[in-house]
Amino acid sequence: MLGIEDITRVRYAAGAWGSNGRWTPGATTSTTIEASVQPASGKVLATLPEGERSRDPRMIFTFDALRGASQYDGTDADRLTIDSVSYEVRELTDWRTAAPIAHYEALALRVQESGVATRTDALEYIIQGVRSALKLATGLVDGKVIVHNPAGGPRPALPYLAVRVVGDRIIGDAERVDSLTGSDPRTRSRGHREATVTVFGYGDAAALYLETFRIDLDKPAIDAIIIAAGFSLSADGQTTESPLLIDTAIETRWQCDFTAIYAIEGTNETQTAADLLSLATSYTDQSGTTTTTGTIAVDTDQ
């Protein structure tokens, strides 16, 4: 092979889908292998989605075994370290029996930075709330109700559902919320938001799961999960079919959109007696008698 060099192959043991709907890779084993690393040809680039053409595609030729992601074995694709940069095996051809010289040929793409698996933002609460409600309505487990387009991981076996939440749209103006802690006033701001929730269903049976969820959305047990997560949820339209081309076959895919309405609140501003001016109130009647009616606290910062 032309331009043989040493590169590092990182191989993953079987992983699992976590309770948060995201993939947790298995343990890794690193091995040095010999390979010829070449730039991807224009013909190969033309077959890639536009977003992947900028991920520095490389063609890898090697006598050592390579492995792609497997939804059946629950394993991630091999990663290759080339010039201190990590690449992931995307497409793999095994030429051990169909070529004069047995070898592996792989298309590898530069690994994108992954998002943080643990999130605490409002949209994450919606994702997890919808996942919990879906599991209750359909009887599916964590590995069958995942976060849409997670960072890494093979696809679950069909059928399965994937939840996506987009948008953080403002509804109306922010409001001021006043309350008391003991005798101290507290003020915070609250803004109302809405987001679009899309549940994708992969495989023929997924349509039944989505329709069951839409029908059961107002059931008390489902409603309680949504309320506990801090938002409201309503269906937008019907469940629709959107077939997806996978390799050379058409895979059945369904989707249903929902609207989530929620609120975000700012940090409380708490004031104490030192911030307040006590203002006494009184009145004098016709006989000249003065009566004190009480005191009120006036905010000196206003």
How would you describe this structure to a colleague?
With 302 residues, the chain is α+β, with helices and mostly antiparallel strands. The protein has three domains: 4-110, Thrombin, subunit H (Beta Barrel); 122-269, STM4215-like, CATH 3.30.2000; 273-299, no CATH class. It is 16% helix and 48% strand. It has five helices and 18 strands. The chain has helices at 42-47, 50-53, 122-138, 206-216, 220-229, and strands at residues 4-12, 16-17, 23-24, 28-39, 58-62, 79-82, 85-94, 104-110, 145-147, 160-181, 184-202, 231-241, 244-246, 249-251, 253-265, 269-270, 276-284, 290-299. A six-stranded antiparallel beta barrel has the order 1-4-5-8-7-6. Strands 9, 10, 11, 12, 15 and 16 form a six-stranded mixed sheet that branches. A hairpin with a 2-residue loop joins strand 10 (160-181) and strand 11 (184-202). Helix 3 (122-138) packs across helix 4 and helix 3 (122-138) runs antiparallel to helix 5. The longest helix has 17 residues, at 122-138.
pLDDT under 50 segments (min length 5)? none
Instruction: State the order of secondary-structure elements, H for helix, E for strand.
Output: EEEEHHEEEEHEEEHHEEEEEEE
Range of helix content: 10-25%
With strands numbered from the N-terminus, the spatial order across the biggest sheet is 1-4-5-8-7-6
In the CATH scheme, the class of the largest domain would be Alpha Beta
Structural class: alpha+beta
- Percentage of residues in DSSP E strands: over 45%
* Overall spatial form: elongated
